[in-house]
Amino acid sequence: MGDLDRLTPSGAITISPPLNRFAPSPMEKRTSSAARLIAVLALIAAVLVLVVIAAAALDGSGSGGEHHHKHQAQREVKKHRTKAKAYTVQTGDTLTAIAHKTGVPVAELLALNPEVDPQILIAGQTLKLR
């Protein structure tokens, strides 16, 4: 049965419900400052890794690509450029292939020949090179 709590002024007795002696106690809070510190450091490291990856992705080519572009630009300057003033398109030619054969960059070929559709080159067509 329950325990007697007290007598009321009118003389009535109040009875409280029985106590459960096997009820689980509230969870004990365990704090470990070392575990908290490690968790904070791991979070900071993860954020740093994400920032580095994002920066590399936004940079595009990365540091190795810049070196490659500089080297490629130097190589293009050293290429032999033809002295011819015009080039006659052969069957199967593309502007890129013509640029490699003549040493004239594709952009310059397009600027010199605005009427030419780079997707549809016709054999026998004459392109200006200068």
Question: Explain this structure to me?
Answer:
- 45% of the residues lie in helices and 10% in strands.
- It is built from four helices and four strands; from the N terminus they run E-E-H-H-E-H-H-E.
- Strands 1-2 form a two-stranded antiparallel sheet. Strands 3-4 form a two-stranded antiparallel sheet.
- The chain starts with a strand and ends with a strand.
- The mean pLDDT is 78.
Order of helices and strands: EEHHEHHE
Number of domains: 2
Quaternary structure classification = single chain
Q: Main β-sheet: number of strands, strand sense, barrel status?
A: 2 strands, antiparallel
CATH architecture classification of the largest domain: Roll
List keywords for this structure.
2 domains; 4 strands; two-stranded antiparallel sheet; Membrane-bound Lytic Murein Transglycosylase D, Chain A; 10% strand; two-stranded antiparallel ribbon; 130 residues
In short:
With 130 residues, the protein is mainly alpha-helical. It has two domains: 46 residues, no CATH class; 49 residues, Membrane-bound Lytic Murein Transglycosylase D, Chain A (Roll).
Topology:
Blueprint: E1 4-7, E2 13-15, H1 33-59, H2 62-78, E3 86-88, H3 95-102, H4 106-112, E4 126-128
Antiparallel strand pairs: 1-2, 3-4
